[in-house]
Amino acid sequence: MLNKILSMIQVHKFTFNPFQENTYILSDESKDCVIVDPGCFDKSEQNTLSKFIEDNGLNPVKLINTHCHIDHVLGNNFVNKKYNLPLGIHKLDLPTLSFMGQSASLYGFQGYELSPDPEYFFDEGDIIKFGNSELSVIFGPGHAPGHVAFYSKADNILINGDILFKGSYGRYDLPGGSFEVLKKTITEKLFLLPDETVVYCGHGPETTIGEEKKSNMILMG
């Protein structure tokens, strides 16, 4: 009888760009890794990301975005070119991504290199595989129309972008945003996950589903 390889996803967080956006590298014992929401903009930030990958002997196999607001896609071009990785997003965030050239100018990101077009799309319930690990896709609009989160039941982790924050939640006043939709995403999807699920946010510190179910501000809206 063969022993099943038990994967354990390691979550590595980097905080980049003036928006203090959290970029994540997920890896397991296979050394394959997934790069989520690369916000690295300048050369120093790009070097920080690539040096970590090199120093730890990681093999980047996927580039994915939770959503396509400017602070989460600033490094898409860099990662795509350096590691030859196609981009994956939810198709409903294509209009958001297509606006990012204008958005970069608006926020003063001079020299922003446009993100590559996505080469594949994922949706609710899809499974993203890397190494010995799996992430399931949760469709979670409200902050952005094509927002998703990536969940590992085996490891009790949720990479949730800008849906849920520690004690707070994502803004809903950007194009395609909606408070009612965001609240439904949080209360009817994320809050159904186990209380011990660790939530990795697009900005700020980690939290847990159990902690946010007790007192998150979304419950008061």
Polypeptide structure, described:
This protein is 24% helix and 26% strand. By secondary structure, the protein is an alpha/beta fold. It starts with 9 loop residues before the first strand and ends in a 6-residue tail after the last helix.
Give structural attributes:
single chain, 221 residues, alpha/beta, six-stranded mixed β-sheet, 26% strand, disordered N terminus
Q: Helix share of residues?
A: 10-25%
Judged by helices, strands and strand pairing, the structural class is alpha/beta
Strand content: 25-35%
- Tell me the number of strands: 14
Average pLDDT confidence is 96
Order of helices and strands: EEEHEHHEHHEEEEEEEHEEH
Number of helices: 7
User: Which runs of at least 5 residues are low in confidence (pLDDT < 50)?
Assistant: 1-5
- Please state how the strands of the largest beta sheet are arranged side by side: 1-2-3-4-5-6
How far the N terminus sits from the C terminus, by CA atoms, comes to 54 Å
Rg over CA atoms, rounded to whole Å, is 17 Å
What's a quick, concise take on this entry?
With 221 residues, the chain is of the alpha/beta class. It contains seven helices and 14 strands. The protein starts with 9 loop residues before the first strand and ends in a 6-residue tail after the last helix.
Topology:
Blueprint: E1 10-16, E2 21-27, E3 32-36, H1 43-55, E4 59-64, H2 70-73, H3 76-83, E5 87-89, H4 94-98, H5 100-106, E6 120-121, E7 127-130, E8 133-139, E9 148-152, E10 157-159, E11 164-165, E12 168-169, H6 179-188, E13 198-200, E14 207-208, H7 209-215
Parallel strand pairs: 3-4, 4-5, 5-6, 10-13
Antiparallel strand pairs: 1-2, 2-3, 7-8, 8-9, 9-10, 11-12, 13-14
